[in-house]
Amino acid sequence: MKVGYLGPKGTFTEMAARGLFKEYELIPYRTIPSCMDAVAESEVDVAIVPIENAIEGSVNLTLDYLIHKQRVPIIGGVTLPIAQQFLVHPSNSTKKVEKIVSHPHAIAQCHDFLQEKYPDAEWEYMNSTGTAADYVSKHPDLNIAAIANELAADEYGLYTLHSNVHDYSHNRTSFIVLSRQSEEIQISGPDHVEDKTTLMITLPSDFSGALHQVLSAFAWRKLNLTKIESRPTKTGLGNYFFIIDVEGLMDDVLIPGVVSELEALGCGVDVLGSYPCFALSVNKANV
Question: Pathway it acts in (predicted)?
Answer without folding.
Answer: Amino-acid biosynthesis; L-phenylalanine biosynthesis; phenylpyruvate from prephenate: step 1/1
